[in-house]
Structures are given as structure tokens and as C-alpha cells.
Protein 1
Amino acid sequence: MGKNENSTCSHCDMQEVAPLPSEIIEFIEDCLKGERPESQLIAVLHKVQLHYGYLPRPILDDVAQRLQVPTSVVSGVASFYHFFRLTPKGKYTISVCMGTACFVKGADKILEAIESQLGIEIGETTGDGFFTLEQSRCLGVCALAPVMTINGKVYSRVTPTQIPEILNKLREESIAE
Amino acid sequence: MGNIYDQFLHLRDQQIQEITEQNKGAHCVIHIGSATCENAAGAERVRKEFEKLIRASGRDDILIKQTGCTGRCAREPIVGVFVSGQIPFKYEKVDVEKVQQIFHDHVLGGELVPSLILDKKTSMIYSHVVVFCGNNFVASDTNWPEVFEEILAECEIPSNSIKVYEADHMGFSPEVSDCKTARMMIMPGNITYAFTYRDELKKIVQSHILGGQTLSDMQIELDPMTKSYLSVYGDVSFFNKQTRLTLRHSGIIDPEDLADYLLHQGYESLAKALDGPSAQDVIDQVLASGLRGRGGGGYPTGQKWKNAITGNDDPIRYVICNADEGDPGAFMDRSALEGDPFSVIEGMTIGSYAIGATKGFIYIRAEYPLAIERCRIAIEKAKEAGLLGENILGSGHSFDIEIRLGAGAFVCGEETALLKSIEGERGQPILRPPYPTASGLWGHPTVINNVETWANIPVILLYGPEFFSCIGTEASKGTKVFALAGKVRNTGLVEVPMGTTLRDIVYDIGGGIPGGHALKAVQTGGPSGGFIHEKDLDLPVDYESLSAIGSIMGSGGMIVLDETDCMVSTAQFFLEFTQSESCGKCVPCREGTLRMLEILKRITSGNGVPEDLDKLERLGNLIKKTSLCGLGQSAPNPILSVLKNFREEFLVHIEEKRCPSHRCTQLIRYRIDPDKCTGCTLCARRCPVTCISGSPRNPHLIDQDKCVRCGECFNVCKFDAVTKI
Ligand SMILES: Cc1cc2nc3c(=O)[nH]c(=O)nc-3n(C[C@H](O)[C@H](O)[C@H](O)COP(=O)(O)O)c2cc1C
Ligand code: FES
């Protein structure tokens, strides 16, 4: 635990992480009553991520202890799967579809445009905490390609020239709030 | 049939009572697609609007039914209007405003809204729609639709009052087993007839169409699967050119309603299996059907099941549904689970009985929340009804299914990695053999099958292995679902008999290439597959012929590329994907794909040398031979197939430092045409590196050494003076 408290990760330092909510603790306890509780690790991590938006380090240690799984296994699993994030997300999560159909229709150019506009790469969050950039694989709306989602809202047939406008608008809206 | 079947019939009667009553009194049923793709296109708003209008109208005989995705993605949201006793109509790209019109004009007023009809094929109301079907089961040379038109003329019926369609592959009839009898369905009423001679067809026209009298002695029952499908979609060419076995219920039934599933022969197969002679008999039927795994490998499913019970007497066995769907351009499994989860669950339950498993898992991507939710609902409802859980239908067989979520790792679709992931570990594959059927989940015999494979099981048991094996080719039986996307008009899901040619899929069903472009290649098998050259389009699609030309059947991704696509950069796209998804356990895959990618990046940035091609080939073949699992063993396929089928494109990139389709950013040169340039200075002002010079009202010039190829000048020029070379 000590290591985490001294960690240089600005996000973890700044915000005290709230303790595990009781639903998740109960879920883990139910797992322990059933067969092979250790196999539910991924399910537990999904719940943690849903609650916090990412997987905070101290919570991973807590999960390890409660589920009686070595911390090394928990962080091994948490870092193996792309779906899990170890850092918090920005206010807006931009997810560019990099599925084949979207790529064929120029999704790589959309990604480049966002990267250059925001100065971040996939998986990163802007310094002001506004935007997190992610990629997804085929949202199943290939007919509308290329597509991206911002906090779940679908933007279809996007062109690189629309990007500055879309992002600036979100920023303005957010400042106005 | 014995006790178990009787118990099933009793249960079914109870379950469907309510829904049958409801449907009986309905004046109109409105079908609204409800699936991830439909919702992204706005289906939820459409549904709310219909609900509002129905409430406001005070009518209780207008029902809304949610259905899964029909696979017609380019036209969503799709709304079907089924007024009782009338020909059904489907509307496309419906939005809130159009809902108002459809509701007032059609649902309440009985007047069609022609401008909104799916495919815009209908510009007037026909008195009848006639679908000729089942040609595939009929050994006749007669072109019945043509004969039909002749007869119409003889009877002086204007041919534009009747719309004729053909649905070759559908229309199996358990009643007529001889192969001379042709079949047809007439709407409204969905009356089906069988006939062999011209006279008989004429009689049908005279009595039914002219006289309005049903000819009961010539009437037959089509198999319910075909009938329910054609009665909803028989009048849409996109659909009646397909053969829907796996997706037989998608877009037809309410995926969250067990009663609706039961109404469409749901769980009949399970009841038959449990009531049948033995579990071995079920395996024999699956073996005889010739069904092969739809997850990509194509291993015979019956054989896999047999392997799980031979050579061991382990009391604990597992069945698993692989719904990890890793191919980044494919969504067959998602759509199947969203549209018809009960079929998969029924298939798994049958499989569990066959191999003696009491526990099953659906391993599904966390990125598919709606599919997960639908599976969860289906499992719950099946359990409540006693079709899942302890002592199913009093047979003594117990089986339970648990959903396990993936977490975004492509390699977890590989079966041994999937097992690790269910066990709660990092999804890293292990060496086979032992295969999972010998030592799988926690060391017990385990059968892992793909979503589509499971969804086919009830069809085989319902209609018999002979029916299934008469569809398809010698070595590949049944149908395959493809997610058709890229440069094709009708993107979406298509299900065709094995052996259909790529040309038929792309042009007949897919509607060809938009924008007047020419087809260049078709990619199948996603990151594990390859690129098929235009000249090979007439090859039948089956496991063997696709591998013979350097691609694979894969799980069903099918991407159409036209001449504006660059094969080198598209191949690089796939390699970037597999490289980033490599689990890192074995060196050939981890290091090899990285080196291949470096070479490719060199080529697409203009630094390639001729020796690179040999290096790519050698490295690719080495990785294929020495990687631990299927991910590495197939990762070089896209590159190798481009090397084989489109080598000249590689050469242009290397020797001329040019990308003929202007996709590789670094190889594009922008040039200003002095004749077209008006000297408006816009490009010079927008250029981020100020590499454009020229005075106002005089032609401008780009400094190629300073240009970063961002394309801004090309995008902003109002006079088309900037060109790519
Ligand atoms: C890298 C890799 C990814 C795979 N992804 C999937 C997948 O997403 N879905 C699937 O059903 N099979 C996938 N497979 C194939 C499975 O390993 C396995 O063969 C299949 O699930 C067996 O089912 P079937 O016999 O019904 O096809 C993948 C294989 C490899 C090597
Ligand atoms: S590839 Fe982007 S939605 Fe399918």
C-alpha cells in the first residue's frame, strides 16, 4: 500500500479513492461461496471499472485480498486485457472505430486529425482532463462508416475536417456549464 | 413420441396461450428492429414515437413487436407494417417524422407511403405478391416465373398488378419429397401451393388470383422456417436471395420473448433429442449433417462432440459458446445473439445432452452489452420455463449456463486462451494437443463451438441431417453468414448456401460497388485471412476453395475493396491489429510480426527496398510455421496474400515510391495546377508548414521538400487546382 501512496501518478495522489462499494463486496462474497471463486476475477474487475471508471491501484489490492488471489495475478490480468484502464478517464471519451470497414473508409485519417488536434495518442487523456482518446473495433454500424462515439453518442460519416468543430463545441459547452 | 415430448407440448401450449390470443385480435402489428446497429441508427426514438401515437389513438389492436436485426444495415431503422389480411410492407431509414406519416397513412388509413418503402421498389400497390421458391429442391428446368407471366397474359391480368419474386434456396417442404414439384407462396394470406405442370399453375392463377378462391387440394405446408421468413421478407430481393438457417429468426421474432420462440418451433429439437433413442443418436445426426465449425477452423462439429466422450469417463464435462468475435470487421455473432439468443441456448442444451455436460458457458465480449443482456434474459426465461436447469422436461438431464465476459483481447477467441480467461487468468494460449475435448476447462473434456455453429444445431435436429446436407457443397454443408462491408451498396449481414460465388454475394445480394468504381479485391477471414483478386470472384465460397487461393473462410468478415483502396496499407492495417493483439508468449509471433510491421511501414513511407519483399515472405512463412497458436500462425496471411495476388502494387510503392490509390500519406505528392489556380492564396494561408509560395492572383507552388503531406491545401482549394500524384 505504501508504494501506492507515494506513487507519482498525479491522478491517484490527487483523489482519495473511495472504498469498494458494498455491492461489489457482496458479489465477491457470493463468489467465495460458489465453486472456483478465483475464476470470477475478470467479472469483479468489470464491476470495479464500471463503478470507478477505471481500476484504481489500491482497489486492486483490496480485490486481491478479498478474492484470495495473489496481487501479482490481479495486476497481471488487469494489464493484459485492453478493456481495463489503469488511469481515470477524461470528461469526454472519444472512441474512434478502427474496424475494417471504418478503416477502409478512412478512419485512420480521423484518428490522425484528433491526435493532432488534442496532442494525445490512443489511450491517453488530455492534460485538462477533458478528453480521453480510445479506439474500438467495429461498432456494427459499418454502413455509417467511418464512425466514432463520444460518451456513447454515435457520430457517423465523419470527415477529418469536422473534427476541430466537433471538439471545440464540446469544450465550449462544457465551459458554459 | 414419448412422455418428454408430451410434456414439452403441454408446456408450449401454456406458454404461447397469451401471445396467440393477442395476435388474434390485432389489426396491425408494427415490427421495429432493436439491435445495436438499429439503435445507433435511431430505432429507439422511432419506437417511442410509435408508442406515443398508439396511445394517443386509443387503439388496443395495434401492437408493436421488437425484432432483432434483419441484416439490412445500410437501410436502418427498418419498420415493418403488418396489417392483417394485407401484403406486409417494410419501410426504410425511418425517423420520427416518417413515423407520423406511416402511422396516419398506412396503419390507420390503409394507404401505403410509397416513397419510404424499403429499396424503393414498390411504386404502387399490388393486388398479390407471388414468391416462387424451393428451386433448389426441385430438379426441373422450367422457368416458372416466366411461365407465370405467360399465364397472366393469357388470363388478361395486367402483370403490373402482381409482383413476382424468386427465392431459390428457401422453400423446403416436408410434405413433398419428390423433386418434380415446384412451390409458391401467394400474399396476402401467405398461402402456399405445390404444382408440377403448367395446367396446375394456370388453375391456381384462375382460382386464387382471379377468383379469390383458395385451392385446398393443391395447398401444401412449407417448412415453418421458410414460411415465417418469406411471409415477412419474401418480397425483398436482398433477403429472398439468401438462405436463412442460422439467422432464421433474426428480424422475425422478439428475441426477448420465449413464447414467440416457441411459436416458431423453438425447443422442438431439444424435446425431440431428449425423447430420442440416445445421446449417441444426437451425435450421429450432427455427424451425418456434415456441419463444420463456423468459428473459422471448420472442424466437423459431430466429430468434435464424439472426441469429447471417447477415451474418457470423466463425469464432469463442459460445453462453451465462443462469442468473442474478434475479427474487427465482423458482427455476425453479435447480431445472431441479439436477434435470436434462444437458438444458441437451445443448441448448447442439445450439445450438453449429447456429451453429458451439466454446465456450460457463453464467453462473450464485454463490448457487446445488448447481446449480453439478451443472453441473460433468455437464460433466465428458459430456466423459469424448465427448459434449462434441473431435470429438463422431466428427462433427468440437467444443464445450466453461465455468462462470462471477455475484456478486449483478440487472442481470447482462440480456444485455449478462452479457457484460461474463463478460469480467471491472462488469456494466453497453450500448446495443443491435448485438445480441449480431451483436457479443457479445469482439465475436463470441453466442447467449444462458435455462436453460429450452435445456432445451426436445432435446425439439424428439426429437419434432419439429410435436409441440412443437401444445402452446400460436397465438403462444406449448410449455409454461412457473412458481414458484408466496405465498398459495396448493401452492407449488412448475408447468409448464403456454402458454394455460392463471391460474385453473387457482392453483386447480386450486395448490389455491387457504389460510385461507379471497379472492384479490386474481396477480403475474407479478417486479420487471419487474405485478399482475393477480382479474377477469382467466380470461385464457390467454401472452406477448401478459399484456402486454395490464399484466404480463409474465417468467421465471416467480408470486406469489399475498390480501386481507390491500397492493398499494401490495408494489409498493414491487419498486421498492426494482430501485432498489437499478440499475447507475447511466443517469440515468432511477438517479435516476428513486429519486424514484418517495421518493413511494411518502411515501404508505405517510401523507404522500401526491393529485398524487402523476399524478407517479408521468408519471415511470414517462418512465423506461420513456428508460432504457438492460431493467432501467430495466421497473422502473416494478409501480407502473404497481397504479395501473391497484388505483388505489382508492392513494387510500385518500392520502386516508384508511389501509392497508386493515394492512401499512403507519405507517398502522396500534392501539385498545384497552374491553369486552374486563381491565386486566391487560401492554401498558402492554411498550410501548417508554409511551404506554398506565390503572389495573389498568380499560380502558387508547393515546396515538395518542406511539404508534410497533410492534405490541407487539397481539402480547402475551391477550384480543384490541387491534385494528388
Ligand atoms: C486468434 C484466434 C481468434 C479466434 N477467434 C474466434 C472467435 O472470435 N470466435 C470463434 O468462434 N472462434 C474463434 N477462433 C477459433 C476458436 O479457436 C475455435 O476453433 C472455435 O471457437 C471452435 O468452434 P467451431 O468449431 O464451432 O468453429 C479463433 C482462433 C484464433 C486462433
Ligand atoms: S468497422 Fe466501424 S462500425 Fe464496423
Protein 2
Amino acid sequence: MAVGYDVEKWKYLRRVLERAGPFTDKDSFDASMVKEALKDVKILVIGAGGLGCEILKNLALTGFKNIDVIDMDTIDVSNLNRQFLFRSSDVGQPKATCAANFIKSRVPDVNITPHFCAIQDKDIDFYMSFNSIICGLDSVEARRWINATLVNMVDWNNPDTCKPLIDGGTEGFKGQSRVILPKMTSCYECSLDMLTPRQAVPICTLATIPRQPAHCIEWASILEWPRVKGDLKMDTDDPEHITWLYTTALKRAQEFGIEGVTYTLTQGVVKNIIPAIASTNAIIAASCCNEAFKLATNTAPFLNNYMMYTGNEAVYTYTFEHERKENCPVCGEQNEPTNVTIRKDVKLGEWIEELKARADIQLKRPSLMGLGKSLYVQQPPQLEEKTRPNLEKLVSELVGNGEEVAVSDSALPFSLRLRVLYE
Amino acid sequence: MLKIWHMKQKQVAADAAEGPAKRRVTAAQLRAQKDITEISLPSTMKMDFPDPDDILNFTLTIEPDEGLYRGGSFEFTFAIGSQFPHEPPKVKCKQKIYHPNIDIEGNVCLNILREDWKPVLNLNAVIVGLQYLFLEPNPLDPLNKEAAEDLKNSKDMFARNVRSSMQGGYVRSERFDDVRKR
Ligand SMILES: [Zn+2]
């Protein structure tokens, strides 16, 4: 199918695309390429929920032609008020697929590909195939995963391995959008301490003197569930599980004369749901797509690098450059693995002696671990005893080529990462 | 973006990344390794790793040599999740014991295991906290309400209950595990 950038309907967008503005970077702006950019750029949207629906709609209407969307969830009836790509007949269906179908039906010349799975199910080649990635997620864990994956993909010999990550997030009336250039600017992990931790209630309060309905619900999920259900893993998406928690919490609330335990509150507490505001999602998604557009076309400078938005009282936004952390466990230079080349016939014990002799690292009693494998650990004694036999084995039997070995030592203020390469 | 790239590229050492695909140790493992290798246990405690390759799951045995729980051997499981140190380790007592801050399911009420956990805290802090629970059981943070009441009402009676519970005896209608050190 011919993608028509020359057709009448794109006339006005072309005007924006082809003219250099006052802030345009003269070196990287090329009017003839800009026109092609939207057509060629391949973008991945992670999450097809409240933010994701807005992001997909914006991208398609902006003129992006190649969009992939990934989401592991199915549509719940409670999503329908703000996740406007879904209809009641879609309840129970995968979000990614329904969102893609809807976009396709409204903007037929978009190539949109859904992926109904977890982001962890996709490999490096998949992420490598995109130009940039937009996240509209509500999970810290998923964000940390994609952030670390993109940072690790960076190869300094190839600029294409650096995939800009545009991250949007909302919580009630508040939100933020940011642009992360892996390895170049502050990453998600660098700013993890900016998260306000969820205020936890002491477990003894839950156990003995609950005062609020949420205390009863937390008691049911943290203490009663494992006691009564044993090893059965709680699934917060399973209505039967939520019902059990609800009735258990309700009984307890009655015992203590506490009112207000409802099914919805139970769901909210165990899933840590903060009420979503549709317009916060719209504002943050608009900002994310604005950045995607600028990154793709070079028409204007992109966000450097963090925009926070607060809508509680009037509107407040603040943009600042969040600084990279030298000791960030994901992107920090300090944690950059050092390449070490070793012979295939070197025993672990010999290698450790070689490492200790190196003047540039200054090790005293190093403990070494590979990927989910203890090589030689000097402390505590039980672990030393169990890993001692490894000293006689060849390093090449224990560690694969290109694999990382983490070295900790009382003489080192941080863990040293070594990347093992064989001669 | 390319401009920043070329600027940064020059700063990076020439040998940065070549050859086979990078496979990195996770942040949780890295931090746990550092914490574990820095722990120096007193003679009253020991750690055991059922699977030495899995340092994220281990047991800690505490054998207090003073206080009301002297002569007992108390085992705790530690489970360190992928979000460590941003989330605290999950710690449970393996035995059914009579203690105001530990319920009969093994849940432990220790502030730094929940509401006061911070990523700067390490495993050593948790271990010290657990040890302290046996030296100074705290009736003001009760998880086992009856044990806490007993301690508040009469320290002597509480001490007798601790002794008999540790031998596998009953306190009221509840039978506890024999935790005597062998
Ligand atoms: Zn970072």
C-alpha cells in the first residue's frame, strides 16, 4: 500500500516537518529526510492501558506508520471509562490486540502489530528492531527491566544500539515524562530514589490493632492468606481470590468495629491502585508523543530530560535535567564491566591469584560470582566450604565467553564487574 | 541525538564493548553478594545456603547465649527478591515459637523488615535486628498478642512460658516446637 505523504491531508503537517525552526539543530536537520522519517521510523509502545491508549492514538494521528504495541493484560470492565480504544464487547480480550485493531480501523495506513505477552518474553533482537520505545506502564518492576535491557544493549561502536526510551507515568493528578538516552543521560534506575515509597503499616498494627479498613485488607492478604492458603500464590487478578480477601477482611473489620471494607477497596489495596485521572494520562501521553515526534524528525530539540507535572492545584510543570549517577547499578561508569582476557586452561584458583596480583584493582580477599552461580565466595564460612572445590576447576568450565563475573572484596567500596573473554 | 552520541563515544574507553553478547549479573545479586560477603557473624549465628549457587535464598540460625531464649536454636529463611535492595528481604521463622514479635506462622515484626526498610540498609542490619529480638522481646509491638500480654503482666511467668515452649511444650492450648540447641 502506498503511504501517502504527498496527499492533501498531510499538507499542514508537511509544513511543520520541512521548515527549520529557531531551535532546530542545523547540523542534524534535513528537510528532505524529515518527510521520510515518520514513514520509516519504527516505534514500540509498551503498555496498552490508560496511557497506552492515548499514546497509540496520538502516534497514529501524528503520522507514525510503524507501531508495535506490547501488553500482557486482558481488558477488564473497569478499564472502559478511560481506555477508549476498548468496548464492552472486548472485555476479556487482550489489550494489545484490541488496541491495534481499533487503531487500524480508524487510521488504515498504519502498520500496527500487537504483542500479547510480557516484555520479558521478547529477546534483544526484538528491541533492537525499533528506533525508539515509549513506555506507558504502571509497574516499577517492568520499567526497571526495560531500562536495564536497553542500557545493556548499547554498543559504543554502533549508534543504532542506543534506543531512546520515552517514559511516561501518572499517579492520580501527578505525572512525569522523560527522555532517556541509554548510557548517555540519566536512566530510570538513576532516579529510583525519587520514588516516594508506599507508606507501609507496621505488621504488628495489622495483627493487633487495625484502625482503618485498609489495615483489615492488608491483614487478610499478608497474614491470613499464607496462613490459610499455604503455598497457593495469590493472584490479584483472580476474582475468587479477591472475594476471599474481601470476606476475610470484612469479618475482621466487623470484629473491630471498622467500617468501609468493600470489594473495590480490597482490589485497590492489594493491587496498590491509585485512582487514574483520564486527563492526567492525556497530558502525559501528549508530552511523550511530542518527544517521539521530535526525536524522529529533528524538527525541534527534545526534552532534556525530565518533565514533572502536578495538576492537584491549578497546573504546575517543571522541567529539569536529572543527572546521571556515577554509581548507578545499571548505567554507571563505575559499574561498567572491565574486559579481562584469560586462557582457557586457567584454573579458578590461579585466576584469583592473578587478579590479586593486579596493581590496578587492589584485591585482598575477593569473592567471585557469575550469573546465578557462586564461583568462589570467601564469606560466610559455609559458602566458602561449598565453593572451595571450584578453585580446582577451569574458569572456562564455569563461566561462558562474554559472561560477567562480579567481584566483591572488603577492600572495594563497590562490586567490580569483570567481563570474561577467552583467548 | 547523534551529536551527543559522538561526544560520549569519544569519552568511552576504546575496549568498551566488543565480542560476544553481554550477559550481566542482576543488580539484586550484585548487592546481595556484597552484603553477604561483608557479614561477619558472631559465634551465636550461622548461615546456610541449601543451593550455594543461589545466594538469594538462605537460612540463618540464631543460638542466643544470653537472655530468656538462651539454649535455643532459631532458624529463619531469607528470600531476596529481584527488587532488592529497593524492597526488603522476606524473612520468616521456620519454627513455631512463643515470642511477642513473632507469630505462630513465623511472621516477624521488625520495623526494618517493612515500614522502616531503606535501600541503604543491608542484610547485616536485618541480622542484628533479629538477634536483638531474642535479647529484648518487645511487648509494645505484639504479633503474638498473648505472649506480649504475658510479658507485660509478669516477666517471671513469661520466662517460664518461654522455657516450656522451647522444650516443645504447651503454653495454654498452643503447642510449640522443640527448639533446644543440639
Ligand atoms: Zn542509571
